[in-house]
Specification:
The protein is α/β, with parallel strands linked by helices. It has one domain: Purple Acid Phosphatase, chain A, domain 2. Strands 3-2-1-11-12-9 form a six-stranded mixed beta sheet. Strands 4-5-6-10-7-8 form a six-stranded mixed beta sheet, with no helix packed on it. Helix 7 packs antiparallel against helix 8. The two termini are about 35 Å apart.
C-alpha cells in the first residue's frame, strides 16, 4: 500500500496545494505529516485546515509547538512570524467552533507515530520537535548521538526539520536524495536508515520545488513539485510581521 509523507509546510498554501494535487494524481489517500504546518509563511489558517482534513496522521513540529507554548529559542525573524501566526489562529472569547477546532488540532498534535514498521518523527527520537539530524554530523564514523538514534527504531526512521532530503544509514553512509536519483529501496539494503523527506513549503537544498516522499512496497521515492512561489513571496511582503527574507529564500531554495 502506498502512502505519502510530507513535512515543514510552513504556512505555504501554494506549495501545499500543488503537493496534495500531486499526491492525488497517484491515487494515494494516506498522508502522514511530520509537522511544522505553520510558521514563516502567510497562510497558516488554510494550511492547518487542509492538514486537519487530509492527513491520516499529523505530528508536532517545533514551530507548531512554539505556536502554543512560545517561541523561546527562535531567532527574531522566526519568533515574529510565530507571534503573527498565533494572532491568526488562537481563539478569542467570541471565536466560533471552526476557530476552536483548528486550535485544538494544533494543540493536540502527537510527537511520534509508528506504522508500516517505520517510525515517524519531526526532529529526532531523542527530542521529537527540536533536535536536528544532519548528515554533516556523521564525520568519520559512529558517535553517541547516532548510536542512540539508530537504537530507537527497527528499520526506518522518517524525519523532517532540516528541510534537506537525504538518507543516513546505520553503516554511517550518507547521500542526498538527488545523489540517489530520488529513490531508495528499503528492502534491498540490510541496514537501518534515516530518511529525511525534505520540505513541502520551504526547501533548503537549493532546489525551490516542494519536496515530499511516496513510500510503496518499501521503496522510497522523493517527489519534487513546482509551485508559484512568486505568489507566496508577494503575500509575505504584504505582512509587516513577516520578514521579506522569508519570501526571498523560497525563490532560491535556501
Amino acid at each position: 500500500m502506498a502512502f505519502a509523507v510530507l513535512s515543514d509546510i510552513h504556512s505555504n498554501i501554494e506549495a501545499l496545494t500543488n503537493v496534495l494535487a500531486d499526491i492525488d494524481s497517484q491515487g494515494i489517500t494516506d498522508i502522514i505529516c511530520l509537522g511544522d504546518v505553520v510558521g514563516y509563511g502567510p497562510n497558516p489558517v488554510e494550511c492547518t485546515d487542509l492538514m486537519m482534513n487530509r492527513s491520516k496522521v499529523c505530528l508536532k513540529g517545533n514551530h507548531d509547538e512554539a505556536l502554543v507554548h512560545g517561541a523561546y529559542a527562535f531567532n527574531m525573524r522566526a519568533q515574529k512570524a510565530i507571534d503573527w501566526t498565533r494572532d491568526q489562529l488562537k481563539p478569542g472569547f467570541f471565536s466560533g467552533s471552526a476557530v476552536r477546532k483548528r486550535w485544538e488540532f494544533l494543540t493536540n498534535l502527537e510527537l511520534r507515530h509508528e506504522e508500516y514498521g517505520y517510525l515517524f518523527i519531526h526532529g529526532s527520537p531523542r527530542d521529537p520537535t527540536n533536535e536536528y539530524i544532519l548528515a554533516t554530523e556523521i564525520g568519520f564514523g559512529p558517535n553517541e548521538k547516532f548510536e542512540e538514534i539508530f537504537a530507537s527504531f527497527d528499520k526506518a526512521l522518517f524525519v523532517g526539520h532540516t528541510h534537506l532530503p537525504c538518507v543516513i544509514t546505520s553503516e554511517y553512509d550518507t547521500a542526498t536524495a538527488e545523489e540517489l536519483n530520488y529513490e531508495w529501496d528499503l528492502s534491498k539494503n540490510d541496514v537501518k536508515v534515516i530518511v529525511n523527506i525534505g520540505s513541502g513549503g520551504q526547501p533548503r537544498d537549493r532546489d525551490n520545488r516542494s519536496c515530499y516522499v511516496v513510500v510503496d512496497d518499501d521503496v522510497v521515492r522523493w517527489r519534487r513539485v513546482e509551485y508559484d512561489f512568486t505568489k507566496t513571496i508577494e503575500k509575505i511582503e504584504r505582512v509587516a510581521q513577516l520578514d521579506n527574507a522569508l519570501g526571498a529564500r523560497l525563490k532560491e531554495g535556501i
